[in-house]
């Protein structure tokens, strides 16, 4: 591994850089909360060679959103489902925007002829 490879990991949202303890501390929750959302399959932490859970920044953002919902009184299973649905909606909106841009570009190309 080169020094450049190490620095690239700092920018990689999916790199599993954080231990369970550090992850829990960063989002202000407990390790058992992280285990619970893992059991609910909201996030699946990677495992170190020693078998310890490791979390990425992307997973921490998801966990923080789950914590926010649970703190508002939402049951953990419902919070996980809400987050999955929010993610699906965001993806559908992104795809829809791409289709609209493509259709607009096609219409512009047709009128330019």
Automatic annotation (TrEMBL):
Keywords: Coiled coil. GO terms for molecular function: DNA binding. Residues 82-109 form a coiled coil. It comes from the Bacteria. Residues 17-85 form the HTH merR-type domain. The keyword Coiled coil applies. GO terms for biological process: regulation of DNA-templated transcription. InterPro entries: DNA-bd_dom_put_sf, MerR-type_HTH_dom. Transmembrane segments: none annotated. This is MerR family transcriptional regulator. It comes from Streptomyces vietnamensis. The lineage of its organism: Bacteria, Bacillati, Actinomycetota, Actinomycetes, Kitasatosporales.
